[in-house]
Amino acid sequence: MSYILLIEDNQANADMVIRILSAEGYEIKHTLRGLEGAKLARQERPDLILLDFDLPDIDGRTMILTLKKQLGDKAAPPIVAVTARTADIEKVVAERFGCSAFVSKPFIPEEFVALVKRMATPTAKESRVSTQNGIDGIPEG
Asked: What is the dihedral angle through the alpha carbons of 100, 121, 51, 9, rounded to the nearest 10 degrees?
């Protein structure tokens, strides 16, 4: 199964995501800080990165640019913004900064799992688009 890097500073939110995705067989590595997440992404090359936009040490936008620069824009895994921000402008910002999808908290677990399944499958690059109940896939390219 795929390896997912979760960068989330709220431990309760992280525990929920880990519980949901571990039950689906995913290997999850979690970090509370963005800079540590960037280091892990560079060293371990996850299949998917779940990124909170509101981290204490680095903002989500800068984090995305950092990851894309470190990993190479084309070689970087899909990055899904998982945030409490719900304004439409946040979805546009996530898209412009290179996120593959946007998930607003709270989310429906079944829909979240379905999105992760599409995003964490390397061969599913073309089908990485979804728009339902707080989960917006942003088409690549």
From this structure: 160
Query: Reduced to 3 DSSP states, what percent helix, strand and coil does the chain have, rounded to the nearest 5?
Result: 45, 20, 35
Structure tokens at 19: 């519980």
**Residue 132 carries which DSSP code?**
E
CB neighbours (10 Å) of residue 21? 24
Q: CA 19 to CA 56: how far, in whole Å?
A: 23
Which run of H or E residues covers position 28?
Answer: strand 27-31
Please give the backbone phi and psi of residue 7, each rounded to the nearest 5 degrees, phi first.
Answer: -115, 100
Give the model confidence (pLDDT) of 67-94 as tens digits. 888 887 667 899 999 988 777 788 888 8
Residue 42 is part of a domain; what is its CATH number?
A: 3.40.50.2300
Give me the tens of pLDDT residue by residue for the chain, a chain 141 residues long: 789 999 999 999 999 999 999 999 999 999 999 999 999 998 988 999 999 988 999 988 888 888 888 887 667 899 999 988 777 788 888 888 888 999 988 899 999 999 999 998 754 433 333 333 455 544 433
Domain span at residue 28 reads 3-137
